[in-house]
């Protein structure tokens, strides 16, 4: 409640209280107009991909890329999935898809398991030198991958995994470690110290506290880690090119080979269907996860 | 600190140490060891296989006299500077617009951010299609009656980097916007009230009060964008393959070609060491400001 004195002093000057909002003010037009135009620009490529992938080749040659398909056909999708050629192989993107699945699933599980335990150790069980290793790890996140490409080739060759899916899994675990460890460390540090101490008094050890107390408490952060890792690993191209052979190529590499192959007639509709197929997994993750995806990004930006 | 005097130091926290073995191995063997290994071998004349026959700065001299490397550096500089400035400006403006207590904020944010979920390969291929002169934007504008309209960045060596820039910005500005929005939300509401009471126009409040207050956010964003720019590789490979000619070569691609295609490892190592150096120039001052200052204070 405003005091009478305030009322008296402002009564004669100007109307008091919030101004009634008009729906269409000049400011609103500018704000919403700009946002709308930018939104259209951002959505356009997705629209073009969908529209192109549903057209037949004759229609693409005649029409323009923005017009909706006159005759909807799913043939490009079938072809992209099952029969598109890369070099001598003509079994479509399906192989790349399953390779990517076989790479992503173990990489995600192993890297999150390792990083969560690491973050937990760094937060609650510091030992001499642990912070130094962590600092090296964080700096490692900024080192261009190109610097470490060849040493890893040698390491993988030594343990006999160069060119195999499991070799690539190890690489993803290594390069996912800095960001994930940071994520889990920061999260576990924010868990009240008393909880940890109480468990210690009750006789719980390193693994006991991790499994019975920390793990059940930190489900959201695990989901964030899951989102970061699935999209990151699925979208990887460089490591796929370097550490796998043609028959173990992940989806992104195979997609690039299909679309940018110089042989034969360019089938733009098949290319766009293939592109969309490859982008589908991270897109679905993105639209399902919503706010958690943003949180994952923010976590990546948190300073160590 | 206290650990150092205890004789059982090594066996204290044994479980934690065992659990940290993967991290320690990664930090020491891959990040530290691998980096040192590459730097050392960049001074050798390794060809097909790495070998320790030192030739001094030979590889670096050859690198800096290779036209292809010089083009790569120039391209990365153009792309880097423009993408840094534009993504900061666009990202901030979008964030500021979204911060006006508007409706559908979530919808807009979802739209601006979705390209970030897509890979650079997908991004590159979509924009390759949109910028295709035969069917894409150029074709459409021409069919509207502007017969002489020319916009074929991917086939014109002079402007090919701008074609890649368009795609890169489309993919990456959503991230910048998100970081900026988080920064804007961290600004105290009272500051806005105070500025309004003092009658300072909104754009001035942003420019002279809010942005200086968001310095940490800007610096973090800067570091994230820059370390991403240096890694620029997939986008170029997918969108142009380095063409036309060598016009859109970038350092990361140069490294890959020399290490795994041309079988000239020494060159690849020297080039990647240069990449490391450029990142170090950015990261070390930042780390010093960020962590060195704290220790003193």
How would you describe this structure to a colleague?
- The complex is a heterodimer of chains A (about 300) and B (about 300).
- By secondary structure, chain A is mainly α.
- Chain A contains 15 helices and no strands.
- Chain A has two domains: about 20-75, no CATH class; about 95-300, MetI-like (MetI-like fold, Orthogonal Bundle).
- The two termini of chain A are about 45 Å apart.
- Residues about 1-10 of chain A have low confidence and may be disordered.
- With about 300 residues, chain B is an all-alpha fold.
- Chain B has two domains: about 1-40; about 60-295, Orthogonal Bundle (MetI-like fold), CATH 1.10.3720.10.
- Chain B is built from 14 helices and no strands.
- Chain B has helices at about 15-20, 20-40, 60-65, 65-100, 105-115, 120-130, 135-145, 160-185, 190-195, 200-215, 215-230, 235-240, 250-260, 265-295.
- In chain B, helix 8 (about 160-185) runs antiparallel to helix 11 (about 215-230), helix 11 packs antiparallel against helix 14 and helix 13 packs across helix 14 (about 265-295).
- The longest helix of chain B is centred in the first third of the chain and has 32 residues, at about 65-100.
- At the A-B interface, helix 2, helix 5, helix 6, helix 7 and helix 8 of A face helix 1, helix 2, helix 4, helix 5 and helix 6 of B.
